């Protein structure tokens, strides 16, 4: 079992790691990718239920990896949040724990009643379950909300469906968030998430080209994660709880012929930083330009200097 944030939020992987104090909880079930406004409204309902049961634990039951990555990898969506971010936003929403079910072939083939009896009742001992109104569960999605409520009546736990949350005439969904980020509309993405969109990961070793060019960067791997279109962005970066203005490049570095998309962050500070292997959060603010191929390295260096100057102007950060 792991914890995050101030230590109150617990990440529990598998029934064998479930502490006794998290039995008899009120739970929500879903993927909760992004923990957007719709998810937050559902979690608010959990808090209300817990208050009516003398403050029993509040827990989200979620799946790792995303079920489509196993069932239909070609349709598996990029992740809005990794596990660390998902736990952070759940903690902010007032949850006590995130219970993670490893989604494998065995779980995918579990019949709805077996899932309810084995995991929800015998495993977790749930008191109340809240799900979205379009919730499906069990092998091939055979179980519906009506089935879950019937089983709850039979087995002694409450079941509620939470309605969709709308912005305008559209229901909020993780799919909608992805669409806005992929279009570079950070304003709408932030409205749906109720916070700025960000990418988070551990800083990995790069090619050291930024340092050689005079603009050292922290590099994040983007495999499987949602990100904006390739290009250069004004952004904010956070390491160790400290937010710093920065410039971010997302792309393949066509000047050097790289094949994979990666993210490079240049923090606008005159203080030397060593961010290697630290967890870095990057919030996107504004797009500066598209990705470009330069005829030589000196032209690239000159453009990076212009990008940095533009970002400093945006943040009103002096060059020192």
From TrEMBL:
SUPFAM superfamilies noted in UniProt: Nucleotidylyl transferase, Riboflavin kinase-like
Pathway: Cofactor biosynthesis; FMN biosynthesis; FMN from riboflavin (ATP route): step 1/1; Cofactor biosynthesis; FAD biosynthesis; FAD from FMN: step 1/1
GO molecular function: kinase activity; nucleotidyltransferase activity
UniProt KW keywords: ATP-binding, FAD, Flavoprotein, FMN, Kinase, Multifunctional enzyme, Nucleotide-binding, Nucleotidyltransferase, Transferase
Protein's UniProt keywords contain ATP-binding: yes
Enzyme class per UniProt: transferase
Keyword Flavoprotein: yes
Xref: Gene3D superfamilies: HUPs, Riboflavin kinase-like
UniProt cross-references to InterPro entries, sorted A to Z: FAD_synthase (IPR015864), Riboflavin_kinase (IPR023468), Riboflavin_kinase_bac (IPR002606), Riboflavin_kinase_bac/euk (IPR015865), Riboflavin_kinase_dom_sf (IPR023465), Rossmann-like_a/b/a_fold (IPR014729)
Pfam families from the UniProt entry: FAD_syn, Flavokinase
Swiss-Prot/TrEMBL catalytic activity: FMN + ATP + H(+) = FAD + diphosphate; riboflavin + ATP = FMN + ADP + H(+)
Ranges for domain Riboflavin kinase: 192-316
Superkingdom per UniProt: Bacteria
Enzyme Commission number, as recorded: 2.7.1.26, 2.7.7.2
Matching SMART domains: Flavokinase
Family of the protein in this entry: Belongs to the ribF family.
Described function: Catalyzes the phosphorylation of riboflavin to FMN followed by the adenylation of FMN to FAD.
Name of this protein: Riboflavin biosynthesis protein
Organism classification: Bacteria, Pseudomonadati, Pseudomonadota, Magnetococcia, Magnetococcales
């Amino acid at each position: 079992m792991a914890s995050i944030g101030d230590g109150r939020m617990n990440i529990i992987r598998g029934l064998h790691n479930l502490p006794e104090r998290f039995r008899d909880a009120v739970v929500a079930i879903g993927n909760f990718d992004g923990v957007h406004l719709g998810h937050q409204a559902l979690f608010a309902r959990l808090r209300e239920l817990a208050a009516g049961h003398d403050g029993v634990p509040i827990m989200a039951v979620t799946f790792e990896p995303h079920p489509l990555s196993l069932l239909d990898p070609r349709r598996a969506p990029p992740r809005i949040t990794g596990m660390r971010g998902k736990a952070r936003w759940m903690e902010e929403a007032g949850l006590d724990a995130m219970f993670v079910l490893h989604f494998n072939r065995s779980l995918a083939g579990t019949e709805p009643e077996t899932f309810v009896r084995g995991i929800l009742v015998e495993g977790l001992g749930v008191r109340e379950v809240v799900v979205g109104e379009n919730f499906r569960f069990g092998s091939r999605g055979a179980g519906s909300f009506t089935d879950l409520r019937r089983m709850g009546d039979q087995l002694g736990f409450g079941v509620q469906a939470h309605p969709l949350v709308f912005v305008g005439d559209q229901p909020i969904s993780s799919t909608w968030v992805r669409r806005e980020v992929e279009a570079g509309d950070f304003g709408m993405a932030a409205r749906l998430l109720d916070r700025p969109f960000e990418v988070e990961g551990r800083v990995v070793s790069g090619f050291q080209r930024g340092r050689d060019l005079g603009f050292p960067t922290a590099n994040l791997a983007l495999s499987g994660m949602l990100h904006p279109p390739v290009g250069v962005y004004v952004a904010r970066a956070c390491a160790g709880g400290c937010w710093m203005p920065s410039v971010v490049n997302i792309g393949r570095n066509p000047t050097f012929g790289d094949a994979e998309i990666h993210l490079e962050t240049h923090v606008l500070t005159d203080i030397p930083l060593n961010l290697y292997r630290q967890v870095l959060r990057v919030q996107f603010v504004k797009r500066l330009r598209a990705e470009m191929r330069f005829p030589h390295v000196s032209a690239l260096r000159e453009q990076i200097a212009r990008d940095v100057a533009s970002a400093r102007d945006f943040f009103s950060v002096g060059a020192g």
